[in-house]
Design a protein that fits this description.
By secondary structure, the chain is mostly helical. Helix 8 runs parallel beside helix 10. The structure holds flavin-adenine dinucleotide (FAD) and iron/sulfur cluster.
Length: 493
C-alpha cells in the first residue's frame, strides 16, 4: 500500500478518480443524521446508501467504513490525518475547512478547474457569463469535437435542430440500462424499512427497484449502453416529452455522474469516439457533450462563484408556500394531465427528464410564485440526482428566474401551447391548451398570462419578454383570466 494520507471520500465521490493511487487508504462515512434531518425520496436514500456500501465492499481492507450518527462523530473516531477532495456544497466545505486533521484538495469530478473558470470569468470583464461562451472555451481547452481550431462539422451548436416534438409512433430507441439488485440492496431496503418503522427517518415518494448505477462497473455499463443504443437519437428529441416514453433518448447518467461513479470526461470521450467512428450523428454527440462539459460544469462553477447567499435570491418576490399536494407528490389529486404525469414520475422514480423539470414542474411553480428556496429544497430531496450545487442554480436561476437573470436571460414560463407542441399530454386532458377562460381553460395558459400580468413592470424591461407583455396588454379578458387563477389558489388543477 502507498504512503499517501487516508482519503476521506464523501458519498458523491465514489469513483477511482477521487483517489491518487488505486491502493490508497480510504475513509467512508455513512452518517444517518443526513437522512434524519430531511425527508428525502425513498429511492434517493436507497441509491446513495447502496452506492456507499457497494464502494465499501469493493475496497475491502483498504477502507475504514464508519456507520454512525454524524460526520463529526466519525472524524473523532479516526486518529490519522486525512485528505478530502473539495466537497460539493457550501455547508460541507465549511465543515471540512474547520477540521485540523483534514487537508482539503481541489475538487474533482468536473472538466473545468476552478482556476480555469476564474480565468475565463475574469477575461469577460463586464460581459455576461454566457453558458455558450463557457462551453466553446471548454471545447477548445479540452480539445473536444475540434478539427484543428475549428469546431467539428463547422458549427459549435446544433441546438436549433434539436427541438423536435416526439414522433407519433414513439422514438423506437431501446430502453435505458437498468441494474439487477443484489444482497447489498436487500440490506439497504431492510435498514430503511426499519428506520422508518422506528420513526427515526421519514421519506417522500414510493419505494421501487433501484433504477440507477450504484457501482463504477454498473455506471460503465450504463454509459456504454447509452452511447451504443440511445445516443444516436439524443439530439433531435432532447426537448420532447411523451407519456408513453418517460425518458426518451436521455442518458439517465446524472445520478451516476453526481455520485462520482463516472468521470464526465470519460462520458464525453466515449460520445466523441462514437461520432468519429460514424456510429452517432454529430448533432447528437454535440448535443450530449454540450450538456456535460457545458451545462454541468457551468452550473457547478456558478454555484461557487455566486456564493451561499444565492440560494436566498427571490427577485420576483415569490412567496407562495408549496401546496401540500405538490410537496407530497400527490399526482392523483391533479387532473391536468401533464402535471399529474410529471408528479407521478417523481413519486414513483425520483426522476424526470430536463424538460419535464423545467417546463412542467418548474413552469407551474414559477407561474404560481412558489417560494424559490422551498422549491429548491423540494427538488433536492425528491430527485435521485439532486445535490445542493446542482439544484440551487438550476432551480433558483434557470427555472424560477429568482436571480434576476444571471443564469437565464428570460424566465422559462410558457402556456399550454408549448406543452401541446412538445408532448402528447394535451390529447385526453380535461383542459384545452388553447383556452384561457371557461371551464376547460388550461391552467398552464391561465397561469402564464397571470404570471406576465403580475410581473408586468419588471418583464417589460426585459427585451426578450417585451412581446409577451404587449400580448398580455392586448388581452381583453385578462381580468377574467386572473380571476380564474385567483379562484384556483393553491388547489390542485
Ligand atoms: C428545475 C431543474 C432541476 C434540476 N436538478 C438537477 C439535479 O438535481 N441534478 C442534476 O444532475 N441535474 C439537474 N437538472 C439538470 C437536468 O435536468 C438533469 O441533469 C438531467 O435531466 C439528468 O438526466 P440525464 O442524465 O438523462 O440527462 P441528459 O439529458 O442525458 O444530459 C446529459 C448530462 O448533462 C448534464 N446536465 C444537463 N443539463 C444540466 C444542467 N442544467 N445542470 C447540470 N447538469 C446538467 C447531466 O449530468 C446529464 O446527465 C435540473 C434541471 C432543472 C430545470
Ligand atoms: S391542456 Fe394544459 S393542463 Fe392539460 S396537458 Fe395540456 S398543457 Fe397540461
Amino acid at each position: 500500500m502507498g504512503n499517501e494520507h487516508r482519503r476521506w471520500l464523501f458519498a458523491d465521490q465514489l469513483g477511482d478518480h477521487f483517489l491518487d493511487e488505486g491502493d490508497q487508504p480510504v475513509l467512508l462515512v455513512e452518517a444517518r443524521s443526513v437522512l434524519e434531518r430531511r425527508r428525502f425520496h425513498r429511492q434517493k436514500a436507497h441509491l446513495v446508501l447502496s452506492a456507499l456500501r457497494h464502494r465499501a465492499a469493493e475496497l475491502g481492507d483498504q477502507v475504514i467504513f464508519i456507520r454512525t450518527g454524524t460526520y463529526g462523530e466519525a472524524l473523532d473516531a479516526v486518529a490519522e490525518p486525512l485528505t478530502v477532495c473539495h466537497p460539493t456544497s457550501h455547508a460541507a466545505a465549511a465543515f471540512v475547512s474547520g477540521r485540523a486533521k483534514v487537508t482539503v484538495l481541489p475538487a474533482r469530478g468536473f472538466t473545468t478547474t476552478r482556476e480555469e473558470f476564474a480565468a475565463w470569468a475574469e477575461g469577460r470583464g463586464d460581459r455576461r457569463m454566457l453558458m455558450e461562451d463557457f462551453y466553446r472555451d471548454a471545447r477548445r481547452r479540452l480539445g473536444v469535437l475540434m478539427d484543428g481550431d475549428e469546431p467539428a462539422g463547422g458549427r459549435w451548436n446544433f441546438d436549433a435542430d434539436n427541438r423536435e416534438p416526439p414522433p407519433r409512433g414513439g422514438l423506437g430507441v431501446p430502453g435505458p440500462w437498468r441494474p439487477v439488485e443484489d444482497e447489498i440492496d436487500e440490506q439497504v431496503r431492510r435498514d430503511l424499512d426499519r428506520w422508518e418503522r422506528d420513526g427515526v427517518v421519514a421519506f417522500v415518494g414510493r419505494d421501487g427497484p433501484r433504477a440507477f448505477p450504484a457501482t463504477r462497473a454498473e455506471a460503465a455499463d450504463a454509459l456504454a449502453c447509452f452511447v451504443a443504443r440511445r445516443l444516436p437519437c439524443f439530439g433531435p428529441y432532447q426537448d420532447a416529452m411523451s407519456s408513453a416514453d418517460p425518458v426518451m433518448a436521455h442518458s439517465l447518467l446524472s445520478p451516476a455522474l453526481n455520485l462520482g461513479l463516472l468521470d464526465p470526461l470519460d462520458c464525453v470521450r466515449e460520445a466523441e469516439a462514437a461520432y468519429r467512428e460514424g456510429r452517432v450523428p454529430l448533432r447528437s454527440a454535440e448535443g450530449y457533450i454540450r450538456q456535460v462539459i457545458g451545462w454541468r460544469d457551468y452550473v457547478w462553477h456558478l454555484y461557487w462563484h455566486l456564493g451561499p447567499g444565492y440560494r436566498q435570491e427571490n427577485r420576483l418576490s415569490a412567496r407562495t408556500p408549496l401546496p401540500e399536494w405538490f410537496a407530497e407528490l400527490d399526482a392523483d389529486a391533479v387532473e391536468a394531465r401533464c402535471l399529474s404525469w410529471a408528479l407521478g414520475q417523481v413519486r414513483d422514480h425520483g426522476f424526470a427528464h430536463h424538460i419535464v423539470r423545467l417546463m412542467v414542474l418548474g413552469n407551474y411553480a414559477l407561474q404560481r410564485a412558489f417560494e424559490p428556496g422551498r422549491l429548491t429544497d423540494w427538488f433536492h430531496r425528491c430527485f435521485v440526482d439532486g445535490y445542493d450545487w446542482v439544484m440551487t442554480p438550476n432551480v433558483v436561476g434557470m427555472s424560477q428566474h429568482a436571480d434576476g437573470g444571471v443564469l437565464a436571460t428570460k424566465p422559462y414560463a410558457s402556456g399550454g401551447a408549448y406543452i401541446n407542441r412538445m408532448s402528447d399530454f394535451c390529447h385526453g386532458c380535461r383542459y384545452r391548451p388553447d383556452r384561457r377562460t371557461g371551464a376547460d381553460a388550461c391552467p398552464f395558459t391561465t397561469g402564464y398570462w397571470s404570471f406576465i400580468a403580475r410581473n408586468e413592470e419588471r418583464l417589460a424591461a426585459n427585451p426578450r419578454m417585451a412581446r409577451s407583455v404587449q400580448g398580455m396588454r392586448r388581452l381583453d379578458d385578462i381580468d377574467e383570466v386572473r380571476a380564474i387563477e385567483a379562484d384556483r389558489g393553491n388547489a390542485p388543477p
